[in-house]
Amino acid sequence: MNTKENITSSAGAPAPRKWLLPLLPIDALVTAHITAVTNHERIFKLEDWGLVESERVSGSIRLIDNAMLALCTARPTEAPQIALRRSYLISTLPDYVDGSNARANAVFEALLD
Question: Is residue 106 exposed (0-12), middle (13-18) or buried (19+ Cβ within 10 Å)?
Fold first, then answer.
């Protein structure tokens, strides 16, 4: 499996794509994104109660960014995977990029590349 570099800048916004993407099916990438979001919500609540360090929240955001940009970068060739990617991105991208020009730019770059 290929490795991937951290795609989030030190300022917390997704950086330009300078990473290697593992070749995963779309359903695995969707699962990775859902898992990352769920994990982030859990860590965020734990941080509110002082049970985890705030750095863990930032790390969990990077995992969400990695998973989303992997989905945007993926180019499936089979119809079911194409349909899954399309419907998942349509349902999640608006909330993901809401209010973040850096995230929007990273998504557009990944989608249009």
Answer: buried
Q: What is the pLDDT of residue 21?
A: 53
Q: How far apart are CA 81 and CA 27, in angstroms?
A: 7
Dihedral in degrees, nearest 10, Cα atoms 54, 55, 57, 59: 180
Among 68, 58, 54, 61, which residue's Cα sits nearest to residue 21? Answer: 68
CA nearest neighbour of 113 among 77, 85, 73 = 73
The 10s digit of each residue's pLDDT in 65-111 is 999 999 999 999 999 999 999 999 999 999 999 989 999 999 999 99
Q: Which two tokens stand for residue 41?
A: 């919500």
**Residue 14 phi/psi, 5° resolution?**
-60, 135
